[in-house]
Design brief:
With 94 residues, the chain is α+β, with helices and mostly antiparallel strands. The protein contains 2 helices and 7 strands. Strands 5-6-7 form a 3-stranded antiparallel β-sheet, with helices on one face. A two-stranded antiparallel ribbon has the order 1-4.
């Protein structure tokens, strides 16, 4: 639909001349009130799904001990209190 006058609705303010979409019942009300008119064409835009988020790199690929703050360190997805504890765990497995 195309707004013939500026008006407010639940979705916000629609300004005169703005093209917008609405349901059939509301469109009939707007047309009968001369607030908006029907368009001969449908909207040219289509909703597009956003791309999927990037997958995190598994921690097994990165074999480094990483500081995560507060005296905690992470290695292969497990957290250890202190660098020495993380290095000891790495030595036991590796």
């Amino acid at each position: 639909m195309k707004a013939l006058q500026t008006f407010a609705r639940l979705g916000g303010r629609i300004r005169r001349g703005e093209v917008f979409e609405t349901n059939a019942e509301h469109a009939a009300y707007l047309a009968s009130s001369r607030l908006a008119e029907y368009l001969d064409r449908r909207a040219a835009t289509q909703a597009v799904a956003p791309p999927p988020p990037p997958q995190p790199v598994p921690s097994e690929v990165n074999d480094e001990i990483k500081a995560v703050g507060g005296g905690w360190f992470e290695w292969r997805g497990k957290r250890y209190r202190g660098r020495a504890a993380a290095e000891a765990a790495k030595e036991q497995e590796g």
